């Protein structure tokens, strides 16, 4: 039991921190290069082998590790030291509740591909991510630099504001799946629903006929499209990456709260941002994109189809591998989406960011929750 | 006594129409704070009383369709006041008496509304004066109709107070002049004294009726229960005549009559009416001649069943009326202000009406009320036309010879003078004659012959001062400045037409009360249609007088009128220098009369000044400023301030944590007590 | 299983610490934070009792307290900002005038 | 000592120490706030041990994640970097206060045992969002609604207080 937990933790940290985060830095450079019509990172080489520039992350790490670690005069040394850790740890800890695969039964043993299968998983995510705000805030304050302080101020206000809308935007999802446990959510999304089923449900048409075969995976994004947009916006704002990078907006306050950081401690801030990109991708996948589920191919159908030929054990194992691959495919797609947004949209003014949160997103998320509640009540009332 | 009665929802519209107009004006002026176009004001304000008149006519025709014994229409709108077993309903009654009054009020009222269009046309102040005037006028019409139509004393009292309020508002209408405002206040305050008596009377009635098992206060039930009131008596102080006990009916009658004395300007409360002439002339005509001041007479007639069983009260009414008639007539002889003369003449004529009512000749009182409404309104409106022509000059010393410029006004004014003087066949002759006849024959009243003599002397004086007024205004040479003379001109048609209509009635209205005896002589049965019409409602006491006596009395009355008129003509037309010589010769007497017997000054010294002094010295400076303000309000504040300044302030250090410590200590003490 | 006495004892300790902070510190913000600490101590007692009785009421109370605390912080810090804008001071003893 | 008990005492010690750190830290308001965060998080841990999962999550989210951040935000907004609070003098008062606090707490702790209920077994989903939510919305809807009014009032009040007058 403990062993399984350790293995799963190592797997996640290895994939997310060890593999994804560095690679994402490369992806970002490459994507920006493509979008800006230039060649991009391709110089770092080991004996002439550049691997399409994939060696750049390695070079970056080497450079950051070897740089001098400067603590500015008048800074609060302890706070300055722990701030990057405060920002990185919650990001990694969020992975604990994101299921990267389903639940599989091999004889007596059960494999549940999630580190911590908490009943209140989504609340855990919110709780942990709310702590992430401290990193930037403390860093800016401890640096004894007015630009940093301004960055901290912006960061704290922005993070707190968007947390409210983030919580409210998934209330609709809570109602749809009636659970906060992310593994349950994934299982619930591993099925399909008839797009026009409500016509029959309310008795507006007697039979759908051929249209009854028109189905969609029962994913959050199809049940709660507005919720998806709102949540995506909020988590991107929480991550403080462009276009929501006001706390570090270099044209205004140089680099915001990590202005006075150098070396690997700057690297930690840098890394935690990319780790959060992966966390966001995982979260979006788990909540809105059906997690590990393969569209139109529920777990039972898959295992049922393969078992007669290859036996239960192989079928389950195949299913598990396919699911994990599906999960990471979706994660990669979500990472790509974030990159695309990051390099497409310009940075708004700070007041526009706050207006967007309080005057547009918050009312929209409230309306979304209310409409969802009404629809669910209507459907249930009809059923009763 | 009239029994039964049909229900008719028409009645409520009669007071409601003017009320709606008044409320509409009130909303526009008071809430929206803007003045409407004059055409709108005229349409609404004159339309309302005219419509009310039409409705009243419809009701009148409904009434005439009923058989003679059951002529009464009832409209119970809603239950207004319920207190224990006593209930006052907002209900209206339309019987022959209120029909006559209602038609007079709406008819004369409509004419005066129309006349006002012309009279108020030059009122161009920026406080919405034109619309405000018509708003008050409509409100007055409504209140007067409430008074007339009210089915019980409470509704009547509502109207009674309403007309008092409107009278106050309209007397002080041109409030820019402090004198006008003072006159309005005087009218209001003097009326309060009468209203006090009226209220006492109502309470006594309620008290009397509550013993008889009656639950509503309407007049018919009162009439039915009059026997129980008549047999009760109350103890009175020993100094009053008839002590130690009076009939309850007498006491009620006197209390209610006190109200009538105030409202109808009888001795000793007549002083407000001459000053009420400060209001616009149409107001004087409508309120202070034709309608409101006759409310007292109407009330006495309406309660004739009560006064019939209260001979003491009736005698008092008769004597007060006669005394007022003579007294006011003597004052009128020496007045120069055209409206003042008319005002005292009104007081005098009201005295006549009370004389008739006191003598039990209620229909004569109502008859004179009606004719007086026509000819006095005519006279007032005529004087208004003169005042308009003279650019708001009211003093006859500055008039004279106006016939040259105002031939039409002169003609209608002369008709009014002839009517009030009592020349046959003008209206005043018949009504005054019937009063004198009733007085002559009222054997139940002590000293009825003396009353008759007073009435006759008053008739002489009436003719004298009216012709004096007429001659001083229209005859002789003009005493106005040249500048004014050049602008004198006949008023507009809107002013003249109501005058013609009123003149018509001043001539012919008398034939409604053509005496039965004359009718029999010329072969017309039941000639006195008014008396017969009113027969069922009023407790008429027919004088037993021979036909020959009646003719003789009439001849005497005509002779009196002629004597007065000739005296006036002799003094003011043929020998215009004589009046001054007489005034110089009888200096003290003349001054006494011209200064109205110094009644205002006496009242001022006896009541007003002591009261003002008491209010100022004792009530204001002593009680209000000293006791309430000084001791209670400021004293308590000073005490609290002293205590707070020297004791409590140390608790309020302003240090938040000090408070917190106190709070924690309190909480700890509480916990310690709980855990003890 | 945690003994309830220990939970309540911890709660009392935290409450006392918060009380001392609120009474002795002069920094307005720290006073507010001390009050938060006292509220949290009360919450802890609620949760402990809820666990001991096995009912949900105590936890509902905690939710209410959290809301009250949030409201208190919002208003309290609003006052602090307004005060600082007028007084340039965060010292509770500098605001001993009841009006200005 | 079982795992949960160990966690309880660990978190309890952390909470007390950090609370003391907050109250005794005279110079540095931000450090005091960070100490408060540690207290909040420790209390959250204790709530988990006491089976109050929803409350624990909300404790972290609201107290640690929002309220203290707002404290920090205000400290930084007002830029209270300099030491605005010179050493305080009222040592006697303080000693008295601390003594009183210790005395009262001690007295309380002394009296408490015996007056408390004995712990009992609870349902498996005790303290979860389902159980608490059901109790909140079915048994206490009125307090819930009133709380929303309180929040609205606080929002309006805070805006009015902190808004810079335009005049």
Helix content of chain B: 55-70%
Task: Work out the count of structural domains of chain D.
Answer: 2
Number of helices of chain D: 6
Alpha-carbon distance between the two ends of chain D: 65 Å
Note the main sheet of chain D: none
Instruction: Indicate the mean pLDDT of chain B.
Output: 86
The total number of structural domains of chain B is 2
Name the CATH architecture of the largest domain in chain D. Up-down Bundle
* Multimeric status of the protein: heterotetramer
**CATH fold-level assignment of the largest domain in chain D:** Four Helix Bundle (Hemerythrin (Met), subunit A)
Helix fraction of chain D, binned, reads: over 70%
Description:
The complex is a heterotetramer of chains A (384), B (676), C (100) and D (167). Chain A has one domain. Chain A is built from 16 helices and four strands. Chain A has helices spanning 2-35, 56-66, 77-93, 121-131, 133-142, 146-169, 171-177, 182-189, 197-201, 220-223, 225-238, 250-253, 263-288, 299-310, 312-344, 350-383, and strands at residues 103-106, 109-112, 192-194, 215-217. In chain A, strands 1-2 form a two-stranded antiparallel sheet. Chain A has a two-stranded antiparallel sheet with strand order 3-4. In chain A, helix 1 crosses helix 13 (263-288) and helix 6 (146-169) runs antiparallel to helix 11 (225-238). The mean pLDDT of chain A is 83. In chain B, the strands form two sheets. In chain B, strands 1-2-3 form a three-stranded mixed sheet. In chain B, strands 4-5 form a two-stranded antiparallel sheet. In chain B, a hairpin with a 2-residue loop joins strand 2 (73-83) and strand 3. Chain B is globular, with a radius of gyration of 29 Å. The model of chain B has no long low-confidence stretch (mean pLDDT 86). The N and C termini of chain D lie far apart (65 Å). Helices cover 73% and strands 0% of the residues of chain D. Chain D folds into two domains: 1-83, NADH-ubiquinone/plastoquinone oxidoreductase chain 6, subunit NuoJ (Four Helix Bundle (Hemerythrin (Met), subunit A), Up-down Bundle); 125-167. Chain D has 167 residues and is mainly alpha-helical. Chain D has six helices and no strands. The longest helix of chain D has 25 residues, at 53-77. In chain D, helix 1 packs antiparallel against helix 2 and helix 2 (29-49) packs antiparallel against helix 3 (53-77). Chains in contact: A-D, B-C, B-D, C-D. At the C-D interface, helix 1, helix 2 and helix 3 of C face helix 1, helix 2, helix 3, helix 4 and helix 5 of D.
């Amino acid at each position: 039991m403990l062993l399984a937990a350790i293995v799963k933790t190592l797997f996640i940290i290895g994939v997310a921190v060890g593999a994804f985060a560095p690679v994402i830095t490369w992806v970002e450079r490459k994507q920006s290069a493509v979008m800006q019509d230039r060649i991009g990172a391709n110089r770092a080489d080991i004996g002439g082998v550049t691997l399409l520039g994939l060696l750049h992350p390695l070079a970056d790490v080497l450079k950051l590790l070897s740089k001098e670690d400067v603590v500015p005069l008048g800074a609060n040394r302890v706070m300055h030291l722990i701030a990057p850790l405060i920002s990185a740890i919650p990001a990694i800890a969020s992975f604990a509740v994101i299921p990267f695969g389903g639940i599989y039964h091999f004889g007596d043993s059960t494999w549940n591909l999630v580190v911590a299968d908490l009943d209140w998983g989504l609340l855990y995510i919110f709780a942990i991510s709310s702590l992430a705000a401290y990193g930037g805030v403390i860093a800016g304050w401890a640096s004894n630099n007015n630009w940093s302080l301004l960055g901290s101020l912006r960061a704290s206000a922005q993070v707190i504001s968007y947390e409210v809308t983030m919580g409210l935007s998934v209330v609709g999802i809570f109602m749809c799946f009636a659970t906060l446990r992310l593994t349950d959510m994934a299982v619930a999304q591993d099925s399909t629903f008839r797009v026009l089923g409500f016509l029959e449900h309310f008795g507006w048409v007697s039979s759908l006929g051929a249209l009854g075969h028109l189905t969609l995976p029962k994913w959050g994004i199809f049940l709660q499209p507005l919720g998806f947009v709102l949540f995506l916006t909020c988590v991107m704002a929480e991550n403080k990456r462009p276009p929501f990078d006001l706390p570090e907006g270099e044209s205004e306050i140089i680099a915001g709260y990590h202005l006075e950081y150098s070396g690997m401690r700057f690297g930690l801030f840098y890394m935690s941002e990319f780790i959060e990109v992966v966390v966001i991708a995982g979260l979006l996948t788990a909540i809105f994109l059906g997690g590990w589920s393969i569209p139109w191919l529920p777990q039972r159908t898959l295992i049922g189809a393969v078992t007669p030929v290859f036996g239960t054990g192989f079928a389950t194992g195949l299913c598990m591998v396919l699911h994990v691959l599906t999960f990471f495919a979706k994660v990669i797609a979500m990472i790509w989406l974030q990159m695309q947004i990051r390099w497409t949209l310009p940075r708004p003014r700070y007041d526009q960011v706050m207006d967007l949160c309080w005057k547009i997103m918050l009312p929209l998320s409230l309306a979304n929750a209310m409409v969802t509640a009404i629809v669910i009540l209507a459907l249930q009332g009809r059923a009763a | 006594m009239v029994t039964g009665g049909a229900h008719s929802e028409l009645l409520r519209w009669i007071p409601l129409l003017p009320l709606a107009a008044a409320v509409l004006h009130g909303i526009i002026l008071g809430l929206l704070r803007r003045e409407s176009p004059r055409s709108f004001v005229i349409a609404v304000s004159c339309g309302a009383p005219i419509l009310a008149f039409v409705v009243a006519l419809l009701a009148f025709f409904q009434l005439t369709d009923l058989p003679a014994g059951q002529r009464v229409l009832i409209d119970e709108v809603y239950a207004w006041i319920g207190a224990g077993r006593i209930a006052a309903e907002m209900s209206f009654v339309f019987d022959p008496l209120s029909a006559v009054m209602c038609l007079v009020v709406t008819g004369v009222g409509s004419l005066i509304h129309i006349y006002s269009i012309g009279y108020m046309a030059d009122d161009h102040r920026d406080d919405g004066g034109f619309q405000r005037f018509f708003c008050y006028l409509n409100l007055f019409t409504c209140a007067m109709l409430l008074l007339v139509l009210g089915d019980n004393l409470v509704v009547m009292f509502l109207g009674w107070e309403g007309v008092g309020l409107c009278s106050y508002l309209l007397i002080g209408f041109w409030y820019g002049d402090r004198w006008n405002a003072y006159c309005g206040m005087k009218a209001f305050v003097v009326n309060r004294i009468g209203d006090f008596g009226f209220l006492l009377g109502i309470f006594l009635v309620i008290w009397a009726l509550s013993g008889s098992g009656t639950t509503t206060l309407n007049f018919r039930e009162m009439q039915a229960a009059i026997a129980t009131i008549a047999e009760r008596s109350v103890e009175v102080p020993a100094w009053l005549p008839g002590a130690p006990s009076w009939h309850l009916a007498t006491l009620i009658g006197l209390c209610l009559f006190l109200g009538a004395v105030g409202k109808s300007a009888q001795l000793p409360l007549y002083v407000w009416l001459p000053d009420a002439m400060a209001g616009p002339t149409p107001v004087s005509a409508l309120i202070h001649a034709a309608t409101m001041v006759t409310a007292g007479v109407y009330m006495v007639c309406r309660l004739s069943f009560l006064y019939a069983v209260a001979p003491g009260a009736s005698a008092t009414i008769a004597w007060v009326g006669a005394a007022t008639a003579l007294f006011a007539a003597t004052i009128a002889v020496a007045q120069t202000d055209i409206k003042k003369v008319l005002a005292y003449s009104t007081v005098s004529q009201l005295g006549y009406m009370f004389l008739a009512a006191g003598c039990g000749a209620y229909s004569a009182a109502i008859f004179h009320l009606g004719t007086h409404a026509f000819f006095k309104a005519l006279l007032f409106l005529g004087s208004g036309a003169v005042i308009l022509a003279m650019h708001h000059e009211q003093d006859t010393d500055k008039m004279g010879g106006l016939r040259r410029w105002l031939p039409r006004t002169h003609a209608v004014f002369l008709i009014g003078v002839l009517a009030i003087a009592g020349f046959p066949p003008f209206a005043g002759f018949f009504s005054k004659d019937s009063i004198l006849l009733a007085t002559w024959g009222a054997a139940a009243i002590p000293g009825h012959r003396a009353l008759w003599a007073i009435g006759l002397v008053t008739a002489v004086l009436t003719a004298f001062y009216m012709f004096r007024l007429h001659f001083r205004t229209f005859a002789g040479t003009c005493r106005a400045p040249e500048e004014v003379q050049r602008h004198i001109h006949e008023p507009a048609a809107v002013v003249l037409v109501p005058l013609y209509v009123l003149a018509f009635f001043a001539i012919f209205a008398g034939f409604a009360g053509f005496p039965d005896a004359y009718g029999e002589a010329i072969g017309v049965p039941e000639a006195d249609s008014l008396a017969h019409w009113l027969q069922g409602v009023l407790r008429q006491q027919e004088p037993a007088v021979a036909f020959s006596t009646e003719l003789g009395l009439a001849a005497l009355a005509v002779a009196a009128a002629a004597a007065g008129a000739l005296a006036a003509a002799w003094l003011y037309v043929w020998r215009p220098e004589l009046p001054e010589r007489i005034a110089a010769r009888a200096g003290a007497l003349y001054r006494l009369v011209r200064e109205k017997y110094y009644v205002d000054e006496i009242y001022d010294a006896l009541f007003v000044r002591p009261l003002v002094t008491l209010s100022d010295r004792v009530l204001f400076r002593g009680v209000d400023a000293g006791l309430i303000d000084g001791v209670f309000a400021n004293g308590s504040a000073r005490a609290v301030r002293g205590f707070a300044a020297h004791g409590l302030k140390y608790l309020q250090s302003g240090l938040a944590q000090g408070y917190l410590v106190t709070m924690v200590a309190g909480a700890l003490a509480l916990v310690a007590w709980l855990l003890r | 299983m945690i003994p309830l006495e220990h939970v309540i004892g911890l709660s009392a300790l935290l409450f006392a610490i918060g009380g001392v902070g609120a009474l002795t510190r002069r920094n307005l913000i720290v006073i507010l934070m001390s009050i938060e600490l006292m509220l949290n101590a009360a919450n802890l007692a609620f949760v402990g009792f809820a666990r001991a009785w096995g009912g949900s009421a105590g936890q509902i109370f905690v939710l209410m307290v959290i809301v009250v605390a949030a409201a208190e912080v919002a208003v309290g810090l609003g006052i602090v900002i307004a005060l600082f804008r007028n007084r340039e001071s965060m010292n509770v003893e500098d605001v001993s005038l009841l009006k200005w | 000592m079982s795992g949960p008990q160990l966690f309880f005492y660990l978190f309890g010690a952390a909470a007390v120490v950090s609370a003391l750190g907050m109250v005794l830290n005279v110079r540095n308001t931000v450090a005091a706030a960070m100490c408060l965060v540690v207290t909040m998080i420790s209390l959250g841990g204790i709530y988990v041990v006491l089976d109050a999962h929803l409350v624990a999550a909300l404790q972290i989210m609201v107290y640690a994640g929002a309220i203290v951040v707002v404290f920090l935000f205000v400290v930084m907004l007002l830029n209270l970097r300099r030491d605005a609070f010179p050493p305080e003098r009222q040592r006697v008062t303080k000693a008295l206060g601390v003594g009183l606090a210790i005395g009262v707490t001690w007295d309380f702790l002394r009296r408490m045992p015996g007056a408390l209920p004995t712990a009992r077994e609870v349902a498996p989903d005790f303290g979860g969002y389902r159980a608490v939510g059901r109790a909140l919305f079915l048994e206490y809807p009125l307090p819930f609604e009133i709380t929303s009014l309180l929040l609205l009032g606080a929002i309006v009040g805070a805006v009015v207080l902190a808004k810079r007058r335009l005049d």
